[in-house]
Write a structure and sequence with these properties.
By secondary structure, the protein is of the alpha/beta class. The protein has helices at 43-50, 93-98, 105-114, 128-139, 158-169, 210-217, 223-235, and strands spanning 2-12, 18-28, 32-36, 61-63, 66-67, 78-82, 146-150, 174-178, 191-196, 199-205. A six-stranded mixed β-sheet has the order 6-7-8-3-9-10, sandwiched between helices. Strands 2-1-4-5 form a four-stranded antiparallel β-sheet, with helices on one face.
Length: 239
Amino acid sequence: MDAISVHALDFAYAGGPPVLRALDLAVPAGARCLLVGANGSGKATLLNIVGGHHMCADAAVRVLGRPAFSDTSLVRDVSFIGGQFPLDVDLTVAEILERRPDADPARRYELVRVLDIDRRWRMCRVSDGQRRRVQLLLGLLWPMRVLLLDEVTTDLDVIARGDLLAFLRAQDTTILYATHILEGLEDWATHLAYLAGGKITVMSPLDALDEYRALKAQHTTTPLLRLVDRWLRRDRPLP
């Protein structure tokens, strides 16, 4: 069974043009799938729909075999991390963690180490990068069967990004990860989904893509980045 199944999904914001059109997507259980596409192509919208944040038909979007919007029990199995994190309170990280006593201490310790978080940080004084680290800590504090990630490494330095990706790779979970930062993901991702024109136009295991294999055979330094760059330039609207 696919962990994420989207069938013939149409979506538009109130009063706006269609964002997603008859979109189909199937993400196998255990996959680490990159979701790529141009700015404004609907990646964040799709992640929010899969995360149950927008109303949709039960048959159109299913996660772990259950309807993404109407089955509220999915909150225990699915974590969406991304976007703004408006936790701007005069509390330390340690005080916030104290309010989550049911989290596994070993997992909490590992995440604090991986994300290089100082428990003394006060949330009303942290930088954008520090705020993102705390958002990731809280979003990953409990093991989830599905992780939906939206540009979560944008504010992280190289070390923090590498350590986070290594942590995620070791998890027994399905990951759908929207990102523009593709360097170093060749050995991390298992699948690639490309969103253009409101539809998923490519969904494949990464190593099954002929274009990608050809770039690797040419010993291209960043074959994944080159591949996605080629697709984006091909599909860019003419001025």
